[in-house]
Design goal:
heterodimer; A: 333 residues; B: 278 residues; twelve-stranded antiparallel beta barrel; globular
Chain lengths: 333, 278
């Protein structure tokens, strides 16, 4: 019994020591703090101190769609149709934060059983500098203008347009922003090389260089490139499909929403009739074709506001679309 | 102490890996043809149902095979929870209002806690408001009740079967030979032809010596098409009524004589509120 106590105390001591060390080392600090310390301006959505109650409320809003406010009032559902997590993960999605690599992202999703979703993860969202980037203007027009450089406006756009819901009130917005700050990047997430850490530690470079070095390690925006469905759907994109990866995409992407009682009322199960149905509509030019649905999304109708957002090139490569097709076709042979 | 910890750890690890998966879409809709299925309207969803039954097809071209003689039921169901539904409707047939409560007790599932069937209880009340020109009808005489157990199993992606033991209680019957309480056993099936198209059938066998001689067992056959937000069901039946009292205990159509009614149900779901679970 005494051995157990001693071992437990030893383990606790190691944990406490490691926590103390982490807090002390610059590469384990919050990314935003280090940037601000070096003269980078505070973002508009910056919060001086994260309120844990607000974080809890924000997490409930993001994951369950509603919560109870600071004065006991119910928030109501932000959207009748979606949660934020219908399209966004809340965990890291990429090993390499500085480059887009869809296959690495898919492998990371497979290894960690993370959904492979059309929207960017909320993890590190507060560390981005622009939102609704690039081609999203094609979809939302002028609505993206206030949202591109203001996280709170981006959240409102997402709540009202993307999720077909209501605008957040003041405390709801505050809660979500606090929750997002709880998902901010740490210096240790950047994968700095030892020499790079040393440069930051011993002040061998100036503040501007430090900021540049840090920002070279992650993307300050999530690029968004809208791509067309293949001109010849029967032929598809010019890639050889990899059905084993397609199986993962089917499970981690399609079935995230197309599940029983899911966001979509079209259930994509693993039955042969389902794969046959998908194959039968492959060449269609309407939303039943999976090429059309993936590349253009579907649309909200009166009385049926649920729709599917498109997968941009960054979120699903042409190769991966062919992987998905190869898996579907392999299931009906 | 060590044993307790070991047992606790075992239970934790077992429960961590325990997985049970509910079987879904045993049927496409909450209605098979005339009667209910074990499918429930999900929490926060309002289901608007319009059903028509026409006259008999043996009326020929003059009545456009019964289309000149239409009855309608307009209904609204609501998913209070995923396991509890309520609904109200108005039928033009005998100007009848009906309401129901439906609760799921068991859901077929696979995995560690497998359940072989889905079990749903269903109770409804119907009030006829048709005026009687010959006498004053007491309010209580206008009321009828139906109670059913819906027992279903999805055997395969393509095939599901349902049994419906049923009890109809009519406060008023027209003759002494008819029983106020009528027991029947229904059976129904779904055969999925394609992902979004199925053939459905439904038959109610009324136990002997409960009804007058002219009443028949209800038999219906049709198909259902699933589209975005809608389910279309088109069918043929010897029953004209769309509530249990009518189709179980008062079906008059004789199949051999061609007393077959064309009918359809159209459902449309509206989301009234979100759902907390992902």
């Amino acid at each position: 019994m005494s051995k157990v106590v001693i071992l437990s105390l030893f383990a606790l001591a190691i944990l406490a020591l490691s926590a103390f060390n982490k807090a002390d080392l610059p590469f384990d600090r919050n990314l935003s703090e280090v940037l601000i310390e070096n003269g980078d301006p505070k973002p508009k959505h910056f919060v001086n101190a994260i309120d844990l109650d607000a974080v809890k409320r924000g997490e409930e809003l993001v994951k369950f769609g509603k919560t109870t406010g600071p004065n006991g009032e119910k928030s109501g559902y932000i959207s009748k149709y979606y949660k934020c997590t219908s399209c966004h993960n809340t965990v890291r999605e990429d090993l390499d934060l500085a480059n887009i690599n869809q296959d690495e992202r898919l492998n990371y999703a497979i290894q960690n059983n993370i959904p492979y979703l059309p929207a960017s993860t909320l993890w590190g969202m507060v560390n981005k500098e622009t939102w609704y980037n690039d081609d999203y203007v094609k979809k939302y027009g002028d609505l993206v203008k206030p949202a591109q450089h203001n996280l709170e406006e981006a959240i409102q756009l997402c709540a009202v347009e993307c999720s077909q819901g209501k605008a957040l009130n003041e405390w709801e917005m505050e809660s979500v922003v606090h929750y997002l700050w709880s998902l901010q990047m740490k210096m240790s997430d950047l994968g700095l090389m030892p020499n790079e850490q040393e440069m930051l530690d011993i002040d061998s470079i100036g503040s501007k260089e430090k900021i540049a070095l840090i920002k070279s390690k992650y993307m300050q925006k999530s690029p968004a490139t809208f791509v067309d469905a293949p001109a010849n759907k029967k032929k598809g994109y010019d890639y050889e499909g990899r059905p084993e990866l397609g199986k993962a995409i089917y499970a981690l992407a399609c079935q995230h929403c197309h599940r029983p009682n899911g966001e979509s009322d079209v259930v994509l199960d693993n039955a042969k009739t389902t794969f046959k149905w998908l194959e039968n509509h492959l060449n269609n030019n309407d939303q039943l074709s999976f090429y059309q649905a993936i590349r253009y999304g579907t649309w909200a109708d009166a009385g049926h506001r649920e729709y599917m957002p498109r997968y941009t090139q960054e979120k699903m490569s042409d190769q991966q679309v062919e992987d998905l097709r190869a898996y579907i076709e392999s299931q009906i042979k | 102490m060590k044993l307790t910890i070991a047992i606790f750890a075992c239970i934790l690890s077992i429960s961590a890996f325990a997985q049970t998966e509910g079987v879904y879409q045993t049927f496409y809709e909450t209605r098979l043809i005339n009667g209910h299925t074990v499918e429930m309207t999900n929490e926060g969803i309002s289901k608007f149902i319009i059903s028509h039954r026409f006259g008999t097809v043996n009326g020929g071209l003059y009545n456009l095979f019964g289309l000149d003689n239409s009855t309608i039921r307009i209904g609204l169901d609501y998913g209070v929870t995923n396991w509890l539904n309520i609904g109200v409707a108005r039928n033009s047939f005998e100007k009848t209002y009906d309401g129901f409560v439906k609760a799921r007790f068991l859901q077929q599932s696979t995995g560690d806690k497998a359940i072989p069937i889905s079990l749903v209880g269903y109770s409804s009340m119907a009030i006829s408001t048709l005026k009687n020109p010959t006498r004053e009808v007491e309010f209580s005489e206008r009321i009828n009740y139906a109670h059913q157990l819906l027992i279903a199993r999805k055997f395969h992606d393509r095939f599901s079967l349902q049994l419906m033991p049923s009890l109809i209680h009519r406060n008023l019957v027209l003759t002494n030979v008819e029983k106020n309480d009528v027991l029947a056993l229904g059976a129904g099936f779904k055969f999925k032809v394609f992902k979004r198209l199925s053939i459905n059938g439904e038959y109610y066998y009324v136990l002997p010596d409960q009804l007058a001689a002219q009443y028949q067992n209800s038999a219906s056959l049709g198909f259902a098409i699933e589209t975005k937000g809608h389910i279309f069901q088109i069918h043929l039946s010897n029953s004209r009524g769309m509530i249990e009292k009518f189709f179980i205990s008062e079906t008059t159509g004789v199949l051999e004589d061609g007393d077959i009614h064309i009918g359809f149900n159209i459902t449309r779901d509206f989301k009234m509120k979100g759902k907390k679970s992902r």
